[in-house]
Automatic annotation (TrEMBL):
PROSITE patterns: ASP_PROTEASE (PS00141), TPR (PS50005), TPR_REGION (PS50293)
Annotated protein name in UniProt: Tetratricopeptide repeat protein
Record's keyword annotation contains GTP-binding: no
Leader sequence segment: 1-20
Gene Ontology MF annotations: aspartic-type endopeptidase activity; Hsp90 protein binding
Tagged with keyword Signal: yes
Stored InterPro entries: Aspartic_peptidase_AS (IPR001969), Peptidase_aspartic_dom_sf (IPR021109), Retropepsin-like_bacterial (IPR034122), TPR-like_helical_dom_sf (IPR011990), TPR_rpt (IPR019734)
One Pfam entry name: TPR_1
TPR repeat feature ranges: 27-60, 141-174
SMART domains according to UniProt: TPR (SM00028)
Keywords for the protein's UniProt record, in alphabetical order: Repeat, Signal, TPR repeat
BP-aspect Gene Ontology terms: proteolysis
Organism: Desulfomonile tiedjei (strain ATCC 49306 / DSM 6799 / DCB-1)
Length: 361
């Protein structure tokens, strides 16, 4: 819906400021042809239509910026990222570009930065977009939502949550912002809030991008029974398997990355504090562990009396907590801590089958 709204805005600009006479109608016809080709997925032909329109416009005029931005999107969608970047840079450098077109251009440049691994540059562009003064509340909302996604990529979950809250305040009908906020809640281990926001996002007539974000939440939280002591859990597109652990039968669920290649389980100190309120926890001494990046850390080992993988009882599990602050911690479930279960991977169905032994050790 936002893309359509911006499109209508751009068409209005073209009509109000295109060259006079036959050239005016020709520019508009070429621009609309390009838009139609974009919807059909004919990105290279769309580029040609927009380029033809640009040949009839003043190179640094308001309408030229609108068409250059449209062509940059076509270049982007056809995979020609360098040409897309060149077009958006032309707009950003202009002294005559209007506020809304500049904002939309910064959105696209931030996306290009992200696709090339330049997260900090993307963050800078979205912060600049937020600072631009204009009256388009939907576009302002989208600026905060896009920056929220970047904060998620940088593991700055509280910052992301703040931006999504602002996006929803500006546009309460933004399914995209609700889906983003759901992801932020998921990363913050607030499972119920994550699920609730995904449901709201899907109730807001979502576009494909919103559906994809919401699906990240709903797919991760879905689980099916494949027997009295077996579960099937989806494997993410990135190959990760996330599961929910509880530390009392009716306690709140906590999000863990299930790593069949990891020996021990690792949790944050904040989660340890919560677990201690739910079940019996005993210190089991010190240990030195090596993380995936090759660094070594001192940890304190803890024996947790009760754990449940979804609703499967695991009995006692061992978890480790860094003695020193190591930044953002993803709760990690290693196989040594869950010796009472086995995990098999079904690549065809993209599911992990988790089976508990008949008796607990």
């Amino acid at each position: 819906m936002r893309y359509i709204a911006i499109l209508i805005f751009c068409v209005t600009l073209l009509v109000s400021g295109a060259p006079a006479g036959g050239a005016e109608s020709q520019v508009l016809r070429l621009y609309e042809k390009g838009n139609s080709l974009m919807k059909e997925g004919n990105f290279k032909e769309a580029v040609q239509a927009y380029s033809s329109a640009l040949n009839l416009l003043e190179p640094d005029g308001k309408n030229a910026h609108v068409v250059i931005l449209a062509r940059a999107r076509a270049y982007h969608d056809s995979g020609e990222l360098e040409r897309a970047f060149k077009d958006v840079s032309t707009i950003v450098k202009s002294d005559t570009v209007d506020a809304e077109t500049l904002t939309s251009t910064l959105h696209l440049r931030a996306r290009l930065h992200l696709q090339q691994g330049r997260d900090q540059q993307a963050l800078s562009d979205m912060t600049s977009a937020i600072k631009i003064s204009h009256e388009n509340q939907s576009l302002r909302s989208l600026s905060f939502a896009h920056r929220g996604i970047i904060f998620l990529n940088l593991n700055r979950y509280e910052n992301a949550l703040s931006d999504f809250n602002k996006a929803i305040e500006l546009d309460p009908n933004s399914g995209y912002a609700y889906a983003g906020r759901g992801l932020a809640y998921l990363r913050l281990d607030k499972i119920d809030a994550a699920r609730r926001n995904a449901e709201i996002a899907l109730s807001k007539h979502p576009d494909d991008k919103t559906k994809k974000l919401a699906a990240k939440i709903t797919n991760e939280l879905s689980v099916s029974s494949s027997g009295p002591l077996s579960l099937a859990v989806p494997i993410g597109d990135d190959g990760h398997i996330f599961v929910l652990l509880k530390f009392s039968k009716n306690g709140p669920p906590h999000r863990f990355l299930l790593d069949t290649g990891a020996t021990f389980s690792l949790i944050s100190r904040e989660l340890l504090t919560q677990i201690q309120q739910e079940t019996e926890v005993k210190s089991a001494g010190k240990a030195r562990v090596k993380t995936a990046d090759g660094s070594e850390h001192m940890v304190t080992r803890y024996k947790v009396k009760n754990a449940f993988l979804f609703n499967l009882p695991l009995g006692e599990v061992e978890v480790h907590v860094f003695d020193k602050n190591a930044g953002v911690i993803t709760n990690l479930l290693g196989m040594h801590s869950i010796k009472n279960i086995s995990v098999s991977i079904d690549a065809q169905s993209k599911k992990a089958h988790i089976t508990r032994k008949q008796s607990l050790d």
